[in-house]
């Protein structure tokens, strides 16, 4: 079932500034998020910018059964300052969430926004995704030192043999023997 226009809003405090975290987006928010990613996420979009005319993105990103999107905005002016997405898929025996597009505006980095969006997905994977996810994955390039330190502090581990693929097993019984 697709996310309704009445998204959940929670107030989250980062440093001394006030922001709010919104889980889920409606179709009307997708163009703004695509513009945010295109203008600030050149390293994330190595295959080129996302086209706002590609209607598939709008429906895909608003379908909470396949994709969860979290945004963080400034409380005083509603400015979008961070975004992240989690693609949800199920194999025969396992639910997997792939975290993508984790991006904070460069003027707002270092204030805990990345930690907030990734922590939100960890919580959703265990509590609000049905059925719950068994594992989270993400990719972080080796030169993104701060992002990698963040992911590792939240429990993600490099996959054995990879310098950029991270995973977090959400069930102690599911830890993969190939994890580094």
Question: What distinguishing features does this structure have?
Answer:
180 residues, alpha+beta, Aminopeptidase, 8-stranded mixed β-sheet, 4 helices, 23% helix, 31% strand
Count of strand segments? 8
Order of helix and strand elements from N to C terminus: EEHHEEEHEHEE
Across the major sheet, the strand order is 1-2-3-4-5-6-8-7
Query: Can you give the helix content as a percent range?
Result: 10-25%
The number of domains is 1
| Large-scale geometry | globular
Largest sheet: 8 strands, mixed
Question: How large is the count of helical segments?
Answer: 4
**Poorly predicted sequence stretches spanning 5 or more consecutive residues:** 1-7, 9-13
For this structure, the CATH topology is Aminopeptidase
Query: Alpha-carbon distance between the termini?
Result: 37 Å
SS-derived structural category: alpha+beta
Q: How much β-strand is present in the residues?
A: 25-35%
Rounded radius of gyration (Å): 16 Å
Mean pLDDT comes to 78
CATH architectural label: 3-Layer(aba) Sandwich
Name of the CATH first level: Alpha Beta
Going by CATH, what is the homologous superfamily? Gcn5-related N-acetyltransferase (GNAT)
Short description:
By secondary structure, this protein is an alpha+beta fold.
């Amino acid at each position: 079932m697709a996310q309704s226009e009445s998204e959940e809003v929670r107030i989250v405090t980062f440093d001394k500034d006030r922001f709010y975290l919104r889980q889920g987006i409606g179709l009307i928010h997708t163009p703004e998020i695509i513009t945010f990613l295109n203008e600030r996420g050149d390293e994330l979009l190595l295959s080129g910018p996302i086209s706002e005319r590609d209607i598939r993105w709008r429906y895909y990103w608003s379908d909470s059964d396949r994709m969860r999107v979290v945004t963080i905005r400034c409380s005083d002016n509603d400015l979008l300052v961070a975004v992240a997405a989690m693609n949800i898929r199920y194999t025969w025996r396992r639910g997997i969430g792939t975290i993508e597009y984790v991006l904070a505006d460069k003027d707002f980095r270092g204030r805990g926004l990345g930690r907030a969006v990734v922590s939100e997905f960890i919580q959703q994977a265990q509590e609000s995704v049905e059925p719950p996810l068994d594992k989270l994955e993400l990719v972080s390039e080796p030169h993104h030192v701060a992002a990698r330190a963040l992911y590792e502090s939240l429990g993600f581990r490099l996959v054995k043999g990879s310098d950029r693929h991270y995973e977090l097993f959400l069930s102690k019984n599911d830890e993969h023997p190939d994890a580094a």
